[in-house]
């Protein structure tokens, strides 16, 4: 598990055990059955309405960096063949934008360039494709 790539399910597992957890896992079934031509998903909600929890849930479900079968077993999500087939089957990238901006400020770096650099460094280490990423992103090596 990396910092950005395939983070795992620890954050969602911890949140699912709290007193005020609201089970929104039925969203996963809707997501899996969406129109295949839909390329993007917008997770927009009012302030303090669970955007981060939803993102953590999706990472826990999709991420190759986790084994989430037991975590999702007691929750409301439909556990059909499609659900089980897609669980922990994909690489996921999770970026906490606020944390990245604070780190960039600490390093006196422009936030977008800093974010590109640290994410590309992790991806290039994982997939050993440095040349392409560094040329494409105009970033110096690790």
Which secondary structure elements does this structure contain, and how are they paired or packed?
Blueprint lengths: L9 H7 L9 H7 L18 H12 L6 H4 L8 H6 L10 H10 L4 H17 L2 H8 L5
Structure commentary:
- The protein is an all-alpha fold and 142 residues long.
- The chain folds into 2 domains: 10-86, no CATH class; 97-137, no CATH class.
- The protein is 50% helix and 0% strand.
- The chain contains 8 helices and no strands.
Question: Short summary of the structure?
Answer:
By secondary structure, this protein is mainly alpha-helical. It has helices spanning 10-16, 26-32, 51-62, 69-72, 81-86, 97-106, 111-127, 130-137.
Total number of beta strands: 0
What proportion of the residues form beta strands (DSSP E)?
Answer: under 5%
Q: Note the main sheet.
A: none
Q: What is the helix fraction of residues, given as a range? A: 40-55%
Integer-rounded radius of gyration: 17 Å
Run of helices and strands = HHHHHHHH
What is the straight-line distance between the termini? 19 Å
Q: Provide the low-confidence segments as ranges.
A: none
Give the overall shape, derived from the CA principal axes.
globular
Question: Total domains, how many?
Answer: 2
Structural class: mainly alpha
Round the mean pLDDT to the nearest integer and report it.
85
Helix count, DSSP H or I runs of 4 or more residues: 8
């Amino acid at each position: 598990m990396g910092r950005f790539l395939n983070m795992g399910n620890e954050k969602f597992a911890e949140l699912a055990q709290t007193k005020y957890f609201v089970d929104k896992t039925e969203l996963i079934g809707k997501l899996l059955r969406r129109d295949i031509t839909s390329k993007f998903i917008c997770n927009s909600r009012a302030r303090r309405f669970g955007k981060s929890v939803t993102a953590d849930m999706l990472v826990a479900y999709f991420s190759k960096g986790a084994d989430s079968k037991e975590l999702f077993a007691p929750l409301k999500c439909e556990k059909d063949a499609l659900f089980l087939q897609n669980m922990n089957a994909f690489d996921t990238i999770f970026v906490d934008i606020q944390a990245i901006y604070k780190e960039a400020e600490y390093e006196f770096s422009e936030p977008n360039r800093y974010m590109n650099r640290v994410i590309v460094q992790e991806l290039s280490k994982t997939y050993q494709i440095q040349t392409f990423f560094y040329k494409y992103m105009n970033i110096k090596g690790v």
